[in-house]
Amino acid sequence: MSYALLVVLAIVLLVLLRSIRIASEWQRAVVLRLGRFLQVKGPGLYLLFPLIDTVAQVIDLRIMTTTITAEQALTRDTVAVGVDAIVFWQVDNAEHAAIRIANYSQAVERVAQTSLREMIGSTELQRLLSDRKMADEQLRATIGDKTITWGVAVRSVEIKDVSIPRELQDAMSRQAQAEREKDARVTLASAEREIAAQVVAAAALYAGSPYALQLRQMNLLYEMNKERGTTVLIPTEMANSLGTVVGLTQALARPPQSAG
User: Fold this and answer.
1) What pLDDT digit, counting tens, does each position of 78-96 carry?
2) Domain ranges for the chain
3) What superfamily in CATH does domain 64-164 come from?
4) Three-class SS state of 59
5) Contact, 66 vs 91, CB < 8 A?
């Protein structure tokens, strides 16, 4: 085999090696031909024409996360808060991500940062603390509207933490405690009204039936005697009537005294 043929074979082999490319399952290669967009290739094996085809960028299609933080941002009711959030985003158009913006990852972070501050400024503190899902959805929509032209879709946004000044935390704690005490007092007053109504109804029932009152008194005496082992007679008509019986019982229970 001549030397020239070996050189030609070596050049052909080198060209093939430089032409064969492999993209992973989650990768897409944006290919330019003579500087103009040709197509998005991958995953798997793909070929490039040497010298005229170039890979502008290899795009990762997996879901990415970006952490954003806003410190001392003022809410709509002028309260300084700090908010930490996570943005989950994904490239869904590799061509736009490679051609329309220089660094889409950095752009997503900056847009998310400014959108977070805008959301805080347009939301009152109470709503921000009580309705996290609303704030998450508002952020997702705002950031997604800005990044969609770059081929980036925002999948979700999750607020991790909302920090407020210590003085405001103490004030809110006292307010919550006062609300709980108020509810407890209202509940107690309502219970007392119900008890009073039942007592009035019972009094009316006993007034119409003296025997029912006597039975109730006897039941109370029985319960007191059962628990304490002693009998307490209250000055009532029933006690007066029972006094003779009790005295007679005690007299009969005494041992007889011997004569003389």
Assistant:
1) 888 999 999 999 999 999 9
2) 3-59, 64-164, 166-208, 211-247
3) Band 7 domain (3.30.479.30)
4) strand
5) no
